[in-house]
Amino acid sequence: MKFLTEYRDPEVAKQYLEEIKKVVTRPWTIMEVCGGQTHSLVKNGILELLPEQINMVHGPGCPVCVTPLNLIDKAIYLAEEKNVILCSFGDMLRVPGSKRSLLEAKANGADIRILYSPLEAVKIARENPDREVVFFAVGFETTAPANALSVIHAHRFGLTNYSILASHVLVPPAIEAVMEDDESSIQGFLAAGHVCAIMGIMEYYPLVERFNVPVVVTGFEPIDLLQGILMTVRQLEKGEAKVENQYTRIVLEEGNMNAQDIIYTVFEVTDRLWRGMEIIPMSGYQVKSEYAAYDANQKYDIDIEEAPENEECIAGEIMKGIRKPIDCQHFGKKCKPENPIGAPMVSSEGACAAYYHFSGAIHKIEEQLS
Amino acid sequence: MSNRRKVQLQCPMPKLDFDVITLGHGSGGILTNQLLDKGVFDLLKNEILDQRHDGAFLEFDGRVAFTTDSFVVSPIFFPGGNIGDLAIHGTVNDLAMCGATPKYLSLSFIIEEGLKMTEFWEVLYAIKDACEQSGVQIVTGDTKVVERGKGDKLFINTTGIGELHPKADISVANIKVGDKIIVSDQIATHGIAIMSIRKGLEFETTIKSDTRYLNYIVEDLLDNFDSDVHLLKDPTRGGMATVLTEIARDTGLGIDIDQKELPIDDQVKGACEILGLDPLYVANEGIFICVVSADKADECVNLLHKHEHCTHAVIVGEVVDEHLRQVVLTSAIGGRRVVNMLVGEQLPRIC
User: In this structure, are strands B77-78 and B81-82 parallel, antiparallel, or unpaired?
Assistant: First the structure.
């Protein structure tokens, strides 16, 4: 299949692996920022094929994992108490809130619908003028344009029954938070290709300068990842720190200007709480005041208490790459995808889920237990 | 929906006094009888059903296989079929997977009031077609109607009985190290066809469900390879990954599969990539997995290739004496990873 098979070619993969082995002379710790990259690394068995000196650690790039507990509770509250049609991307549904997940709320009778595009939610709002429709707008810069576009469409149609519950987060401030953490041992980054497709790569120059780390914008297919790793290792071995773009077939230096225009029409940058981490300054989007009518946070009187996070979950440390899922005492034991303690075990982008589903090491843990 | 089966002229819908099904049609009274007389009994006519007794009287020689399944697919019409033929094929195929020749089926409807008669007729017609093609008879059944909101248009249960093939010896216990794992055709087609029209997730595609009967293919396989066919499984819900992990668990042996051998239609592959679904976990209807003796595997594949719907049959893996109770997949680039059972439902991802 065009644009896929050529990036999964075993011969090319072999050549990259050999080149990486040739170049690497000492241990390096590299963070793949995006959960999609983590999954591709484990799903394709790449971690096993890499030389031992290369330690890949996953980053905070799982939108589902970093969506605050309180916001999931808010979404459930809207669906259950305000009788709205709550629309969401599929993988938010299993994430545990303080009492239950959206999937459990759905089973209890709440009208929760899985959509692939927020524009579908606008369609539902048009088809159901007597019902309120809320789209749970989570994600990084990647999903922001479509979510913003849904607000623009709703505005254009004159809809008064559509709003979004926005929880957008941004990648560069998260990389900054990782590097500022004293325990962090990250020496290089594979930046998230799809985020850069929207935002471009300019935001990374100041980061590289400030922290003196290589940042390589990388795609998601096996060959992309191997090439990204090779480019990072080459920089590290030479003592360089610069921004490079591996994902040139998708990512332009300036990004997608149209998409950015749409984002900044509807959203503005704000401080944002990251689940399992802390409030990171200027790390998210909120709906601008001129579109307040489409902001579920402002539209509804949401009366819920702030619930504490489950202290047993070490998601924050995992998402900063300080610890790996298998370092968690509950991993594969008390915490499994069917009974998760924290979000990273649930989401299709979550690091714990990736390690649990695809890594052979897990089975060994389970065998020891049984 | 353009690709839906059209009710054909030789079997027109009878003239009825009603155009939607109401609670009365499930009451057992006049309306029920009207619905049955002019619909179900007429269309699915056979000697046993015509007796219209409380149950059917059946005769068998030797061992039989017995299975049941409920069908709740939504939407009830989808590219390549509808809930009617799905309900027949599902039970026929379950019997075939036991190594049996499907003979008789029961058919029960749970209808949500308000279902259009034209839709019900279309489903019935698909049932009639599927029965004729797969050589089974509906011999008993039931119809209930529930209030609006208490169902999802139409649920169907079918139960089936079939006579075991004299040469069949299908059992997990027969599987041994070295056995080859064959998949009969392209995977993940049905699940993606359903997904493509599910509300909120619609995408443009020409992918059709592969719902079909497999009994004659299986019969041919057993006629030729009898006890060398160790296990037959149709990987419906949970997909191939679920069936393979079950086999690994039940045999206590390991299974190796090769990702680059997995037969997947390009459109299906593309849809899986876009939606973030792993084709190994996507539901199938018209394919099966068979575990066969290593020395007969190539011949089995050659035989399958002669059947219209098995042209992509291929050996995808083998049973091994390593990583016990585990399925290990060799990825396209040569990396290896464990394949686990599906947790919950596969949900489309965010990005």
Answer: antiparallel
Residue of chain B with shortest Cα separation from A93: B347
Using a CB-CB cut-off of 8 Å, the residues of chain A touching B343 are: 336-338
Is A155 within a domain?
Answer: yes
Which of B323, B326, B350 is opposite residue A89, by nearest beta carbon? B350
Cα(A21)–Cα(A36) distance, rounded to whole angstroms? Answer: 24
**Cβ distance of A43 and B337 shorter than 8 Å:** yes
Quote the distance between the C-alpha of residue A349 and its chain's center. Answer: 7
pLDDT over 90 percentage in chain B: 70
- Given a cut of 90, whether residue B8 has pLDDT beyond it is no
* Residues A177 and A269 reside in one and the same domain: yes
Closest-CA residue of B relative to A87 is B200
**CB-nearest partner of B351 from A194, A223, A359:** A194
Q: Which residues of chain A does B344 touch, with a Cβ-Cβ cutoff of 8 Å?
A: 94, 103, 337-338
For the segment B72-79, the average pLDDT, to the nearest whole number, is 91
Residue-wise pLDDT for A275-323, tens only, equals 878 899 999 999 999 999 999 999 999 888 888 888 888 988 888 888 8
Closest by CA to A231, choosing from A41, A241, A220, is A241
- Model pLDDT for residues B308-347, shown as the tens digit of each residue: 999 999 999 999 999 999 999 999 898 888 898 877 666 6
Least CB-CB distance to B338: which of A115, A223, A358? A358
* Helix, strand, or coil (residue A284): strand
A289 and A324 assigned to the same domain = no
A contacts of B266 (beta carbons < 8 Å): 1
Q: CA of B233 to nearest chain A CA: how many angstroms apart?
A: 23
Tell me if B340 and A48 make a contact (CB, 8 A cut-off): no
Cβ–Cβ gap A363/B326 under 8 Å: yes
Across the interface, whether the CB atoms of A45 and B335 are under 8 A apart is answered: yes
Does domain B172-339 match CATH 3.40.50.20? no
Cβ contact B158:B73 at 8 Å: no
Q: At what angle do helices A360-369 and A351-358 cross, to 10 degrees?
A: 80
The parent domain of residue A170 ranges over 1-296
Name the residue type at position A180: E
**Letter for the amino acid at B192?**
I
Distance (Å, rounded) from C-alpha A297 to C-alpha A302? 8
| Span B192-249, pLDDT tens digits | 998 888 766 677 788 999 999 999 999 999 999 999 999 999 999 889 999 999 999 9
